[in-house]
Amino acid sequence: MENQQFSIPLSDVVSEFHLEKFYEAQGFDNEVVSVSEVNRPGLQLAGFFDYFDSRRIQVLGRVEISYLHELSHEEKMVCFDRLAATKPPMIVVTRSLEVFPELLDAAKKHDVSIFRSSQSTSNFMSAVISYLNVQLAPRITRHGVLVEVHGEGVLILGESGVGKSETAVELVKRGHRFIADDAVELKRVSDKTIVGTAPDIIRHFIELRGIGIVDIRRLFGMGSVKDTEKVDMIIHLEPWEDTKQYDRLGLVDEYTNILGINIPSLTIPVRPGRNLAIIIEVAAMNNRQKRMGYNAAEELNNRLMSKLEDEANQ
Fold first, then answer.
1. Which pLDDT score is estimated for 2?
2. Is 244 a catalytic residue?
3. Active-site residue among 164, 177, 188, 204?
4. Active-site residue flag, 143
5. Which of 75, 207, 209, 250 could be bridged to 297 by S-S, CB 3.0 to 4.6 A?
């Protein structure tokens, strides 16, 4: 599943960025884009097509339009015909610049969609790349619960019935926010970031054994839910085993690898009487503190080592 190629309809991109239509190719509603990179075809307009990826959206900005203004009608026809013949998903002219008649003729000849944006070229390209990175990101689905605790995205994993959903409800009651229950969709949106969300059909719903399905947004209000959240740490809940040795200092950092990214993780044993909500709150704050450069376990260890050294020198 991690190697699966994802795509989104081109019509979603047009709608998201409110693009002005000049020519829409036949079957445009069925056209998709499957790469997150976009291209400014300056070299291609000059005739250089080595290493050209025709799957990318092509963007014409002020530089390209200014260059084309210097060309004759026949030269424009040749430039646009060569570009449109590669059949890119669509060509977008930015800054509300002129859409040349020669471009429209080539687009109609090769059935390539032409749109225009009022945004600056750099802003448009960065926004489109960011949008496509999220929409086309590698993804997996994990059985768990995703909550935001003190600004930290906490993914709670564990066997069915261990108490993940009940803990999430307690956290919501304490003022934190709920993102997903049962099926958490995780997307790798960059080399350092995993973002989690819920499938549309079960968004904001949570299952509590003995009660059934409840709607967190309806029960606790709009402020109790979020649609997406970055995963900052993972907490594994497991039934307490008296024979198992659990980490009591936290000197060794543990990580869980998801989609090639190592995310800080903890294993918390569950037994009657333990307040998991408070434990997760403290774990989230401690994780943020570590990220800001302070590790309480290392500080205590340094104090102990310093004390031992002083006693040894006496």
1. 46
2. no
3. 164
4. yes
5. 250
